[in-house]
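Before our next group meeting I need something from you. Please put the record directly below this note.
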Amino acid sequence: MSKTLTIALILVIGSVIYLSTGCAKDKDPEVIEFVMQVDSIQHADTITAGEVFEIRFFGVIGPNDCFEFSRFEPGFGPDNMNFTLYAKETKRDDCGGAGQYLNGGGVGITDATAGDWTIQVNQPEGIAPIMSTVHVKE
């Protein structure tokens, strides 16, 4: 191969590589999901089997609008219900506004059988879970 053809080929390949990389695109902001701390729960003490049993959750999601509720993860055993609530923070420079709260958002349970049920709300590591009970009558 001639020296001129080799140089031309290197220039073409270099140009293709340079043009294919283009401009740096804006990155999506980093999002961090975490177990949120629930301050309290609210529910009836006694219900009848087959009724909708509602549990309402209260807590601070975060100090500004970069925080939001993410998801709700329930778990059920033969006589217990456990819940973990997740929030997420979007890392941005323009966070503002007031704190974000979980103001009584809840879940409805319809298939609790008769008996005493333990409710456990899991918390971030190092914080004791919230524990409560509900009596389901026939």
